[in-house]
Write a structure and sequence with these properties.
35% of the residues lie in helices and 14% in strands. With 219 residues, the protein is of the alpha/beta class. A seven-stranded parallel beta sheet has the order 3-2-1-4-5-6-7, with helices on both faces. Helix 1 crosses helix 6 and helix 4 runs parallel beside helix 5.
Length: 219
């Protein structure tokens, strides 16, 4: 099985790369800058990939041109902490480009590498849920993840006739650098759960918004 993971140099992406490598998959981990941990993981590292740069993304992903992709995991993401009193439109714009537009562009670029039976996983967040928002703030992150959810549902509808299933997955509150090490589950546990959810994914369940623990989430 050929697995492509964006944002594979740390956190959830790195843990997923290790999980799939341990299962015997051939893993291609893309990132802007690699790290010792990723370089020693025994996977194929493609550095210099910035999903926020649409004009150069196809060139950056060129090393994957001849790879038949069984699973594409759009994991790369960023988090801002805007409030109504303290916000910056530039950071909000950047979160949209990385969190929402980036996964769509990566999937579009690599669509020729996907075939019937392939899967696309979007690592989104329940913070993109309207019904689940009871605390406000985090404007850029919430809006960009809501936009990613909208893109994911459209991808699920568009790719279903091709036999390609799409998962929208909330990892949980994970102990990563993005949240300063806070969280209630570690990256290894998170990756194990996500691998289980992706294994369960089928054309019949395409487009659903699911927590890594298996819970269906509200939009």
């Amino acid at each position: 099985m050929n697995v492509v993971i964006t944002g594979g140099n740390r956190g959830i992406g790195l843990a997923l790369a290790k999980q799939y490598k341990a299962q015997g998959a051939k893993v291609y981990a893309t990132c802007r800058n690699s790290c010792d941990d990723l370089n020693s993981a025994g996977v194929n590292v493609i550095s210099g990939v910035d999903v926020s740069q649409p004009d150069t993304l196809a060139e950056q992903l060129a090393p994957l041109a001849d790879v038949n992709i069984d699973l594409l995991i759009n994991n790369a993401g960023v988090l801002g902490r805007e409030s109504i009193e303290d916000w910056d439109p530039n950071t909000i714009d950047y979160q949209f480009r990385v969190n929402a537009l980036g996964p769509l562009l990566v999937t579009q670029t690599l669509l020729p590498n996907l075939a019937s039976g392939s899967k696309v996983a979007l690592i989104t967040s329940r913070m993109g849920s309207m019904a689940d928002n009871s605390s406000g703030n985090y404007y850029g992150y919430r809006m960009s993840k809501a936009a990613l959810n909208a893109a994911g549902v459209s991808l699920a509808n568009d790719l279903k006739p091709k036999g390609i299933a799409v998962a929208l997955l909330h990892p949980g509150f994970v102990q990563t650098d993005m949240v300063g090490g806070a969280g209630d589950i570690d990256t290894t546990t998170c990756a194990e759960r996500l691998v289980e959810r992706i294994a369960e994914l089928s054309i019949e369940t395409t487009g659903r918004f699911v927590h890594s623990n298996g819970e269906t989430l509200p939009w």
